[in-house]
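Q: Now give one record:
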Amino acid sequence: MSNLQEKKTDPNQKKEPELKGTLISVFLVGAFIVISWIGVFVLFISR
């Protein structure tokens, strides 16, 4: 009886969510921050 109540965990049943979109978003935000800092630095140096 106790064997019927136990839930069998199938390793294929739990899949991690796709995180490619998150990775691309993080890279885009990071690139924007870096480009902004470079732009401000160039503006500061040129004055």
About this structure: The mean pLDDT is 84. Residues 4 and 47 are 77 Å apart (CA to CA). The two ends are 81 Å apart (CA to CA). Residues 20-46 form the longest helix (27 residues).
